[in-house]
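[#protein-structures] MJ: dropping Nucleotide-diphospho-sugar transferase domain-containing protein here for a structure pass
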Amino acid sequence: MNDHHKHLRLLQFERVKRSTCFMARVVSVCYGAGDGFGSCVHAPAVPPSVFRRGAYIELLWAKWRLIHAALAVARTVLFLDSDVVLLRNPFTAAHMKRRHDIRFQTSLACPARTCAAAPRFEGVQHAGSPPVMRPCQLNGGVLLVSSGELVGRVLALEPVAIGSRNSYTVNHADIDQDMADQIARGGEFSFCPLPPSHFVGHCFNRQVAT
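AK: finished. structure tokens for Nucleotide-diphospho-sugar transferase domain-containing protein:
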């Protein structure tokens, strides 16, 4: 969170702020800003950045470093972007008790009824073409992670991404969540999309279309 996102926090936690058990476990990275929601790990201020440009890329990778550090002391970590609104305690859903190396909100509504039915990763069809939005594709806005090894695999790709940052400043370039999707579906880790009945994040594509 920084000053640019601070006003979103009032909406993000409005419905769960009285859930003391949940809020006691909320930890935020606060870039030059803070509030009373959970605990803050303070970091230097970060200026607002344009989608997929500038500091946006560094913040994406900071997310994975944060998850990796948290898994050193916790069995499972729930990561939420600052623009995710919580309507209730997410851990009250029975399906959250099913352990997988990674569970995630999907970019589009996922039609699969079971985790095993979720399709494997499908990348960019050819160089320079925009990635096709697939049902069940991993979205980094909501992540439930239990495997430090998986996160380590994702972080191993950070130098390549940051070193080639100029190629990541256009909307059709792969970003961290695309790389994480490939690793999650590569056959070495268990994964499962979070059900859209409880985790809905399918408004962005409509906004672009209009």
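MJ: nice. Strands lie at 27-31, 39-43, 77-80, 102-106, 138-145, 191-193.
AK: one more thing. Confidence is low (pLDDT under 50) at residues 123-127, 167-172, 205-210.
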